[in-house]
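ESCALATION

Customer reports they have been waiting on this structure for their group meeting. Please prioritize. Original submission:
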Amino acid sequence: MDYKLTFKEYSQALKENRLLGLKCRQCTTITVPPRMVCRKCSSPELDIVGLSGQGTIETFTTAFVAAEGREDEAPYTIVMVALDEGPWLMGNLIGIEPEKVGMEIMGRRVKLGHQVFTGDKYSAGEAARPIFSLED
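Update from on-call: job pushed to the front of the queue and completed.
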């Protein structure tokens, strides 16, 4: 079985400010980031779809201690966003000081962007990751 959408293709699309997901032909669930099978019914019958990258913050956490080799990145806020198309996607929140983030961001609308992160000893190299900013 082959991946319908590889992580490399997903990352390249993010670098072009496009968010790709996979829509199941069996149950119509949208899966993002890419997997080999549907996250709901495990069907391998998936089609690549473009997503808006807009959604609502459902929950968040602020990290004050960064991962090894990324100490200069802390602190940062990570949000779980319910995308308008249904799936939840995690990414860093930008445009607001992490020390000032509080419960008032819950339910706020956000839009997707991307940031390219260099690889480290735990990854397969450089990749784009989703980031979010508050909508006006």
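Sent to customer with the following note: The longest helix spans residues 7-15.
Escalation resolved.
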